[in-house]
Amino acid sequence: MKIENWTAGDIPQRSEGLAVITGSTEGVGYEDALALSLAGWNVIMMGRNSQKGAESIAKIKQVNQIAKVSFEKIDLANLSSIKDFALKMISKGQAINLLINNAGVMTPPERLETADGFELQFGTNHIGHFALTAQLLPLLSKAKDARVVTVSSVANRAGKINFDDLQSKSSYTPMVAYAQSKLANLMFAFELQRQSDINGWGILSLAAHPGVSRTNLLITGAGRWSFAGMMRTLFPFLFQAPAQGALPTLFAATSPDAIGGSYYGPHKMSETRGFPSLSQIPVQAEDKNVAAKLWEVSLQLADVKF
């Protein structure tokens, strides 16, 4: 189901509203920040590199001189960094209308760990965003129209939540670990909606994926000279532009037609490119027992409460 060639020009304009976007100094996250700023949102861009943050804000200001954009440093591979950011936000007390869990690490060739000892992809892509969402919940609940959009990937189709080896200690295969983390993202989005409904948090939780987009995720993860990195470098025309890849996330984040607990992605060529559409949900992502167990395990690993 295609949603009538929806574009960033269809984002409803608003005079207020705070959007927090992880991994937004480049790629799809940057396009999210740019589009939302053009629609009148107050945007907090987030990343590990303050210089990149400043450069990204300058780029947005060139397009939109009156953009309300700022940068906050955060490392999603470090629970202390996440907690520090959340405490800073809570001290300001401003309601958060939109949280986009976008940052990601993809297929490092060797097994790496976060500051807290988690496998880097599972720890950053899932646990980091799980912890961030939990700690920002009071500010999300404070908003009347809060949405949380968690960005997954077509790689989730091959994913499996391996509770016996969540951190890939027994065996590490880059794409297997990545697929697990992206399946976890999708299952978290669905379970967050269920938990919001049960507990009355008043939050819409949605998932999206960018298809196959021309970002640096492959190069910084697998490496420029990996097969995937070479494909990205030598055949850029095979990948859609980041601005196009951002559309499913932006639709989920802003459209009055977006439905809580839904999953959006591009509509063409096995969801690798095109305009926003409802995505096909992998059968394993619909297992509510696994989702509930993942939620409980994640609460313990992230050491947070919702």
Question: Could you describe the 3D structure shown?
Answer:
The protein is α/β, with parallel strands linked by helices and 306 residues long. It contains 10 helices and 8 strands. An 8-stranded mixed sheet has the order 3-2-1-4-5-6-7-8, with helices on both faces. Helix 4 links the parallel strand 4 and strand 5. Helix 3 packs parallel to helix 4 and helix 5 packs across helix 10. The longest helix is centred in the middle third of the chain and has 26 residues, at 174-199. Mean pLDDT is 92; it is low at 230-235.
| Main beta sheet | 8 strands, mixed
**Number of DSSP strand runs:** 8
What is the mean predicted local confidence, pLDDT?
92
| CA gyration radius, whole angstroms | 18 Å
- Terminal-residue CA separation: 34 Å
How do the strands of the widest beta sheet line up side by side?
3-2-1-4-5-6-7-8
H and E order: EHEHEHEHEHEHHHHEEH
Low-confidence stretches: 230-235
State the helix count. Answer: 10
Helix content estimate: 40-55%
User: Proportion of β residues?
Assistant: 5-15%
| Estimated structural class | alpha/beta
Per the principal axes of the C-alpha atoms, what is the gross shape? globular
